[in-house]
Amino acid sequence: TKPVHLWTKPDVADWLESLNWGEHKEAFMDNEIDGSHLPNLQKEDLIDLGVTRVGHRMNIERALKQLLDR
């Protein structure tokens, strides 16, 4: 369990998969989202990444907060 800021793109994809949001993995990979980007992701970034469902955005934002708070 390495620090989030050291996560690779596949680590981020695995994290999304572990939260049952695998449908968003490809967009994160295509847009080169690695662990260094996660702390700075905003709602607008998630929309740009194709996370169009409000519930999914809220869940990802909540999971990011939990991830970064540990």
Give a brief rundown of this model.
This protein starts with 8 loop residues before the first helix and ends with a helix. The protein is mostly helical.
- What structural category arises from helix and sheet content? mainly alpha
Helix and strand run: HHHH
Rg over C-alpha atoms, rounded to the nearest angstrom: 11 Å
Q: Report the total helices.
A: 4
**What's the β-strand tally?**
0
Protein model, in words:
It contains 4 helices and no strands. It starts with 8 loop residues before the first helix and ends with a helix. Helices cover 54% and strands 0% of the residues.
Keywords:
mainly alpha; single chain
Write the layout of secondary structure elements.
Blueprint: H1 9-18, H2 25-30, H3 43-48, H4 54-69
